[in-house]
Design goal:
Elements lengths: L19 H17 L6 H11 L8 H14 L2
Helix pairs in contact: 1-2, 1-3
């Protein structure tokens, strides 16, 4: 999960049939979001990062990438 650790049986997980490269890209996005996210951020920023963590696609749009990059630079990850 993007905001913590949970133990879930495999039978309860839904597969999105990602290719290995897409799985790696999803992990990269998740890692970036986790490095930036904290409870001390403004609510709107938290909601934006939470929405990135819920994407069902293995890429960020150009605008999402730019906003995440700005957050990373502002928070000094």
């Amino acid at each position: 999960m993007w905001d913590g650790e949970y133990a879930v049986g495999l039978q309860h997980l839904k597969s999105y049939d990602y290719l290995p490269a897409e799985c790696k890209q999803m992990q990269i996005i998740s890692d970036r979001v986790n490095r930036v996210y904290s409870s001390g951020l403004e609510e709107s920023v938290q909601k934006f990062l939470e929405s990135l963590g819920k994407l069902k696609r293995a890429y960020l749009t150009g605008l999402e990438e730019k906003v995440l990059s700005v957050l990373e630079s502002e928070i000094r990850v």
